[in-house]
Specification:
mainly alpha, 6 helices, membrane, DUF2938 domain-containing protein, transmembrane, transmembrane helix
């Protein structure tokens, strides 16, 4: 069951990632905005000239993937009785980033008319964006059970001093 313990960290992490992507895209003059790239993929796949449905689909897919990744990260932290903090955010961010790059690469390969994006730069951006996402998820997840309970029981984050 997807509850606020997943939804709130997922929305927080995905929103931080999106803000980062929009700022970088503006600064670099590139379209590294994941929801917009997803919208282009939908628009080109269905050969539509309408913008509203692809745009909504892009955002929905982006946030849905954020929920999925949040659930995976939280399960890893729960199984290891770990309070998520900076170290866990960095590790899961790198793993999530590599996974994300692979998913995007497959998506671009199987799509009949993918958007024209410099993929190596996009991949580097995705890695950093996923680290920001995971840090947001880690720190937001700390506010909910079981991670609050871990702190009350004296379980420390693996990157906090003893």
């Amino acid at each position: 069951m997807i509850t606020k313990t997943v939804i709130i960290p997922a929305i927080s992490g995905t929103t931080l990632m999106s803000i980062f992507s929009y700022v970088v895209s503006h600064a670099k003059g590139e379209n590294f905005k994941e929801p917009k790239v997803l919208a282009q993929i939908v628009k080109r796949a269905f050969h539509t000239h309408k913008d509203k449905l692809p745009r909504m689909s892009g955002w929905a897919m982006h946030y849905a993937m954020g929920v999925v990744m949040t659930m995976v990260f939280q399960q890893c932290w729960k199984k290891t009785n770990t309070i998520p903090a900076t170290k866990q955010g960095l590790v899961t961010g790198v793993i999530g980033g590599i996974t994300g790059v692979m998913i995007w690469k497959i998506l671009f390969r199987v799509h009949p008319n993918p958007p024209h994006i410099p993929f190596m730069r996009f991949a580097g951006h995705l890695l950093l964006a996923h680290i920001i996402f995971a840090l947001g998820v880690a720190y937001c997840s700390r506010q909910f059970d079981p991670f609050v309970s871990y702190e009350e029981e004296g379980i420390k984050s693996t990157n906090e001093p003893s």
